[in-house]
Specification:
Elements: E1 2-5, E2 8-11, H1 13-21, H2 29-49, H3 56-67, H4 76-82, H5 85-90
Antiparallel strand pairs: 1-2
């Protein structure tokens, strides 16, 4: 957020432009949720395409065991698919039934 200017701190002009450019519009909870889940879907797609993980099931297991994702929901990739995030963002699904 800040750029160093000697010992003083100055707001980064690029951040200032982004922040002020959004206006006074309030974000709806659904919009925030969709943005966060879309970013998560893109990151999962990236680690799959870069072969960091072998399959979406590996991502699901990591999220269940490491991040506390509720196991009864079937995994984060299934959730993203069923919520319509993955098909909308990536025009595909992670989990095949």
């Amino acid at each position: 957020v800040y750029v160093p200017v000697g010992k003083a701190k100055k707001v980064d002009p690029e951040v200032d432009t982004l922040w002020n450019g959004r206006g006074n519009r309030a974000f709806h909870p659904e919009e925030i949720q969709e943005r966060v889940l879309s970013a998560l879907a893109r990151e999962i797609d990236l680690i799959l395409s870069e072969k960091i993980v072998a399959s979406s099931r590996d991502v699901d297991l990591a999220m269940i065991m490491g991040a506390g994702w509720p196991f009864f929901m079937g995994g984060i990739t299934m959730y993203l698919d069923l919520a319509g995030i993955t098909p909308k963002m990536l025009q595909k699904v992670f989990f095949s039934f």
